[in-house]
Amino acid sequence: MGEIPSDIRAILEALARKDISVEEAEQLILSIKEKESYHSPKEKKYEKSVLGKEFVLHKGEEYTGNLEAVNSKIVIEGTINGDLEIAFCDVSFSGEVKGNVQLVGSTIKWNGGTIGGNLELVGCKYSGDRPKVTGKVEEINNFFINGILGTVKYLVVKPFLSGIKIEE
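Structure (tokenized):
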């Protein structure tokens, strides 16, 4: 039998400690599985990672591939043909994402827009008019999650980023 992936193992361990509910564990595992299964065979996919920088996709612009961002300022007014995964960012969204959107520990200013897949929010603060979502909308926002995200952001992400010099 094969090894259990680390992200699934972490969810199972949190469930065993009763840090999360069975429903929250199911949602997280389904999110991981959906991410693994979303691939368009006709398109060549690209990955872009934004770490501690600003990323702006202006109205009329189009990006093909998946976009990942950590501890950044993100402005999406154009179209992303892929998934959007964001952690600990300031986000302004009014564009279109044709895949799934996953937001963790971020502050979001919604200005409408559309999401062609699922929207998953974990420990986020948001305001404005939420976009139209074709898939499911799942939100996990409880005391345990917020505490863990705060610890991760201030004890792991910020010190890690302060030691890195990013050059283009």
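The helical segments are 6-16, 22-37, 143-162. DSSP finds three helices and 16 strands in the chain.
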